[in-house]
Amino acid sequence: MDSVPLRIMIIDDASLVRLYYRDILERAGFAVEEALNGVEALEKLLVQPAALLIVDVNMPKMDGLTFLRTLRQQALPLAGIPALVTSTEAGPQDRLAARAAGANYYLMKPVPPDRLLGHVHLLCGAA
Amino acid sequence: MLCDHLYRETGIAFGEGKEYYVTRRLTERMLATENVDFAAYFAHLTTQGSAERQHFINAFTVNETYFYREDYQLRCLTGDLLANCVAAKPPGAPLRIWSLPCSTGEEPYSIAIWMLENWPLVDNYNIEIIGSDIDTAVLEAARGGVYGKRALMRLDSRLVAKYFEQPDAENWRVIGDLRDSVLFAPVNALETLEMRRFGRFDVIFCRNMLIYFDEVSRRIAAENLYEALLPGGYLCLGHAESMSRISGIFEVCRYADAIVYRRPPEPGHG
Fold first, then answer.
1. Which of B91, B116, B126 sits opposite A20 (nearest CB)?
2. Model confidence at B18: pLDDT above 90
3. Is B8 a domain residue?
4. Number of structural domains chain A divides into
5. Which end of chain B is more exposed for a tag (fewer CB within 10 A), N or C?
6. Catalytic residue chosen out of the listed positions B29, B69, B133, B218
7. What whole-number distance in Å separates Cα of residue B178 and Cα of residue B80?
8. How many CB atoms lie within 10 A of CB B186?
């Protein structure tokens, strides 16, 4: 990995989930930023973009799919940030809705550490 | 007279041998309120709407504890209890844990840390950890999440570095995300209506509260705790406490790490 760690943003309203993913990512050498919902994520990304987004679906203020649709309408490089959606919803329609909103990949929760890191590396091109 | 009043307010019976403790706390409150004699203080205390009522309760219910206390129960939580609790839950469903009494927050924060470190399904459920106590001053301290070295003595340095920041040489503060993961709210375990406001829980930790109560209060508290559990939910008591001597409404469950009590599941459910 480069000497400057890649920056990943976790967008999830559950503080325990953020702590859980943050630990996995920091142990693997990534720098982690957090946002509690889509609005906060957009605000933070406008200041400093990230290499990858990990996005929950059900969140207050702005849910994950509305956030992704809004993000994909921004100018580059914001619009092009890869996004990994994580959710407890298992239906095929949920995956399709996430893809349509602009998700690059959809991971069903629970996400074990090796699975999370595998997809993070793929989407960041940091394998 | 004072002990009768204390009993009515808190359910805690101060009998013989507790004179020193009672006198010390009472003197503290009399000094704090500038009442030089007991009659004047008692009148002040029992005046309708007196703010002293809560200060008085707080002074007599202070408790000292530390992180990862009675950790065999935390092992039991992630080793056996949670698997049973979530067996019939869909992903994303609420998983509710109540720490009561939580004193200054060490226990509910310990539950959160233990689950993060030892339970691989933390992202699969909507986990709610609530800490409650009758003492509003300790809840304020719990929300602040600042602890001295002694409270952290059972945590290894890796956990301290991961879940605490150090504002100065003597104190450690629980990191923001962990503080946000626990909701603190006051409750009196003997007040049935107050208890009901919190809804029902999968697991309740109620350690070292019942031992302070007399028999009548113990039974009321036990019934309130039972009602606060989901069918199939678990109650964890302190190691020196036994529910069987208080009430027969709970099932006794023996697991590898601990004995806990369970509200029986409803027929047709696990």
1. B116
2. no
3. yes
4. 1
5. N
6. B133
7. 24
8. 14
For residues B178 and B78, membership in a common domain is answered with yes
In the stretch 170-209 of chain B, residues with CB closer than 8 A to chain A read 177-178, 180-181
C-alpha closest to that of B233 among B196, B197, B204, B253: B204
Residue labelled with tokens 């909507």: B126
Residues A56-67 pLDDT 10s: 999 999 999 999
Distance of residue A117 Cα from the nearest chain B Cα, in angstroms: 15
Q: Is residue A85 part of a domain?
A: yes
Residue A127's pLDDT is 43
Give the DSSP H/E element, type plus range, for residue B136.
helix B136-144
What is the DSSP secondary structure assignment for residue B244, as one 8-state letter? G
Name the residue range of residue B213's domain.
Answer: 71-262
Cβ distance A88 to B115 less than 8 Å, yes or no, reads no
What is the domain extent for residue A103?
Answer: 7-124
Instruction: Indicate the range of A68-77, B163-172, B196-205, B235-244 predicted with least confidence.
Output: B235-244
Of B123, B178, B181, the CB nearest to A109: B123
Q: Are strands A52-56 and A31-35 parallel, antiparallel or unpaired?
A: unpaired
